[in-house]
Amino acid sequence: MRLALAFPLCLAALPALAQDAPKLGPNAVPITTDNTYLRANPAPDYWAFSSFVKPQFTSSACSIATVTAALNGLAGLPPHAEDQVISQQGLLAQVGSTEWMALSAEDGDGVLFDQLVTFTQAALTATGSAKTITSFKPKDSTDAEAMRALLAQNEISADDALLVYFNQGVVTGDWDGPHISLIGAYDAATDRVLILEVDQDWYIPYWTPAAILLDAMLKPTSDDHGPLKGETGGFVHIH
What we know:
With 239 residues, the chain is α+β, with helices and mostly antiparallel strands. It has one domain (29-77, 85-238): Alpha-Beta Complex (Cathepsin B, Chain A), CATH 3.90.70.30. Helices cover 33% and strands 15% of the residues. The chain is built from 9 helices and 7 strands, in the order E-H-H-H-H-H-H-E-H-E-H-E-E-E-H-E. Helix 3 (62-75) crosses helix 4 and helix 4 packs across helix 6 (113-126). The radius of gyration is 17 Å and the shape is globular. 44% of the residues are buried.
């Protein structure tokens, strides 16, 4: 069992104590094992965003890592040699929110879902983006079809992006805690979602059933996570 400490949001997953425990549980299939969908379909989000998904720069920085990847993917590679790709630290400085900086610092508390919405909008404003955002926060399993409709809509083109706030352990079978990453694809035929992980000290992109992702968004954060106690997740849609 894990120590009962007040872990911040998206703290890098701790290694399982069982010596021969698998890297991923049954609900997460790494992209290296299954990339058939990406080879047989356009998968516009995967090709637009995957190159810009970088490791979160602290154990609490999954929100800024995900927002940065989304904005870079939406903008594409800068056209001029002197133009830099936006970094996580650079975007934090550009937004200028001391609260987001503190929450994303090493051992920071991490963000609530509503804060993710607020900070994402602030990042769009700071970078001069004309995009807007809406949020989807499922209440229970009756929101499954609405979730799938949003995933299918997002899969049509790379003109929008879906950020997902979810309990990582429900998907990976390991660390039980809240986390944020970017949706990379939705295979409607198999009803699976590709997560472009920013927690790259431990994971690479993986597929998970849409029903499991919904469970991961609905699971309340445990008491061990201090100010995030009771928090549930959802999507932040940049469009």
